[in-house]
Each structure stands twice: as C-alpha cells, then as structure tokens.
Amino acid sequence: MENIKLSDILNHFSNNDTFLKTPERLLVFNGEQTRFQLAMNDSIALIEEIRAIQKEFKAPMIIGAIPFDQRSKATIIIPDTFVNYHHSNLIDDLQTANQPLSIEDSIDLPSRLQFNEMVQEAIHSIRKQQFSKVVLARSLKFRLQEEPPITAWLTNLLHKNKQGYIFSIALDNAQNLIGASPELLVKKEGNIVTINPLAGSRKKTYDLVKDKAIENELLHAEKDLHEHKIVVDYICEKLEPHLGEIEYNEKPAILYTDTMMHLSTVIKGKIKNDTTTVLDVAQLLHPTPAICGAPQKPSLEFIQKTEPFNRRYYTGIVGYMDHYGDGEWVITIRCAEINHRDITLFAGAGIVNSSEQDSEYNEISAKFTTMLQAMGLAQE
Q1: Among residues of the chain, what percentage have pLDDT more than 70?
Q2: What is the pLDDT of the chain when averaged over all its residues?
C-alpha cells in the first residue's frame, strides 16, 4: 500500500463514515454501511448474534459500539468496503483545525452540589460494605447554533493524541460517537491477549519538573494504588479460567495522555480455547471496575440509581473484530455523543473509602479537557 497523508483521508471523510485509529492501524469505513441495533439483555447472546451477522454477511471486518449497560442498544456496522491502513503507511501532516463555535445553551449535570452528595452517598455505601469502589460520572451538554464540525474535531483529536485510540462511529438517526480513548479493554492477535486497565489519575501541568513530581506522588498514592489494584485483581480473576501464562508487572506504570497521567498495568496471556474471540474476552470483563466498580453488580445498580442520566455509550466499548475473531476493543472514555446540534460530553472518577469530593470533581473536570480542546472550547 502506498503512503497516504492523514489530511487526505480526512478531506474525504463524512459524518456518515466510520473511523477507528489504533497505535498500529487505521480503519476507515466509507460509503454504504449496514447497521444493526442489538439488544443488550444478555451479553453472551449479544456476542452470538454478532457472530451470526458476521457469518451471514461474510464480513471480513465488523466495527461497532457497545453501551455501558442494558438500557441502550449496541450498534454493529458491516461496511460494503473498508480500508485498513498500517501506521507505517500514514503520513501525519495534521495541524490544529480552528473552527469557532457558537453555543446556544449549556448545562452541567449533575451540579457540583449534586455531585458532592453523590460522592458522600457512595462513601457511605462503601463503609456499609455494599461495594469497595464505584465510578461516578458527570456530563456537559451543549447546543450549538450550527451543525458540529466533526471532521475538524477528529483532526484535533488525532493531532493531540498520537498514541490513543481515536474513533468516530456513525450511529443511527444521524448521531455520532467520537473520542480519544487511552484505555484498551482487550486486544487479541492469534492466541495472545493484551489488556491495559487504567485507574488512578492526575492532571498534567505541562511543566516537566512539576509533572515529574506529580508522577512520583501518583505512583505512591495509597488511595490511587488501592483503586488500581481493585481493577487489576478483578481482571486477573475473570481471565484466569480462560487464559494461561498471565503476566503483568506487580507495580503499575504511568501512562501519559494529552491532558492526564494514569496508573497503568499491561496484562498479557494466552487463550486456552482456540474458538475464543476478542469479543468473548471483552464480554467477560465489561464493565470493569475501572469504569463501573467492584463488585460489579451492586456498583452498577448504584450508578443506575444515582447518576441523573443514562450513560449510553460512555464507558461502553468501541472496536473491531475480523473473521478470525481477532481485534481491539477500547473503553469509550474522553468522548462525545453528537445528535445534530446537541453535544454531550462525559467523564468520571473512581470513588473509594478515602475519596475526597473536591478532588474527584476536579479530576473529572480535567478529563473533560481532551474533548473541550478538540472542540476549541478550552485553552491548550
């Protein structure tokens, strides 16, 4: 394949197309695409239905978005044609795309007072041993005076997030899901599986000396290390019956994004059953304590009862699977849902016994910055 400029790809990109860039590849689904809206009542049945669709259409590749919980439907897309670019064939010639926005209305949900009450209720439930961790989210909603410049936002996400997973998924009814996720739920290549959970975060200052001090503090922060260990222990317990030779570093490392630093652990293992697909592994893990809580069932119930909105695709997963069952699925964070001129951003933070409400609120505010910068609504 000849080398191609990212700017040329984006110049031919429309809101009806689907786009997913990983550190190794870029998938672009142009033109006619068959979309399926699938119920989430049973995760195993959902995976079987996706497999059946892929077999029926003899699709070499499917791509899609699976929501956080059963209140929303999964979107699975089969393209008539698609292009699979290897990163070595991509010429990164992108510059920031400045496209001013006019905002008619905006709302922060929940309010700061409501969020503080949610955190206190969560801590109270943790101390009553209903669960050990829960992730609580906030949303920012905007109504624009004009249609959103999705290609410009995608350009900015690609320009600022060189190592992230950049996506624009065309949903039904002229809706789009775009974002730049740093968190790999699962990647499968042959019999090798890789998982990279993130939990425990700090905002970058862009001052090398200050950021090094913050990094050192995060690596030794008892609250964040505890939160991170909950996630790693959960994943290893879930994977143990299905994977052999599970390996990971005992102490987490730091993963940097454009705006944040996170505690990160890379977990690898070998599939025991050759028929296991990447989506089989994904459904074992999703939703993880990194974006839901632990144990899963009571923390999920608390989120559904407490948060004043339906997360829909936020903290769901987006990704692809080929006809061999290999692929990559990432957690849908640092994202926006677009419905014509209505834009909704989401971000969350993990609550444990030692959480402080102001710290959690500020962490979420920092996580909004990735999308706000891409939209031209925050300072670089």
Answers
A1: 99
A2: 94
Identify the residue whose tokens are 């700061």.
112
Tens of pLDDT along 354-367?
999 999 999 999 99
Residue pair 366/203 in contact (Cβ under 8 Å)? The answer is yes
- Output the pLDDT for position 379: 56
In terms of Cα–Cα distance, which of 170, 166, 191, 203 is closest to 330? 166
**Directed axis angle between helix 43-56 and helix 278-285, to 10°?**
160
Q: What is the 3 state secondary structure string of 342-355?
A: EEEEEEEEEECCCC
Dig out the tokens for 293 from the structure.
């809580």
74 closest CA partner among 40, 47, 34: 40
Q: Nearest to residue 307, comparing CAs of 139, 105, 188, 141?
A: 139
Between strands 90-91 and 4-5, the pairing is parallel
Q: Residue 20 has which token pair?
A: 């997913």
Q: Which of 324, 248, 309 is closest to 71 using CA atoms?
A: 309
Model confidence pLDDT, tens digit, residues 131-190: 999 999 999 999 999 999 999 999 999 999 988 999 999 887 668 999 999 999 999 999
Q: Rounded distance, CA 222 to CA 203, Å?
A: 17
- 17 phi and psi, to 5 degrees? -85, 170
* CA 235/CA 221 separation, integer angstroms: 21
Secondary structure class of 181 (helix, strand, coil): strand
DSSP assigned state of 256: E
CB 283 within 8 A of CB 39: no
When pLDDT is averaged across residues 248-273 and rounded to a whole number, the result is 95
First to last CA, the chain: 35
Residue 187 phi/psi, 5-degree rounding, is -125, 135
Check residue 380 and give its pLDDT: 53
Residue 291: count other Cβ atoms within 10 Å of its Cβ. 27
Distance CA(124)–CA(380), nearest Å, equals 38
pLDDT digits (tens, 9 = 90+) for 27-61: 999 877 899 999 998 888 999 999 999 999 999 99
CA distance 375 to 210: 27
Looking at residue 63, its amino acid is I
Q: What is the reported pLDDT for 174?
A: 66
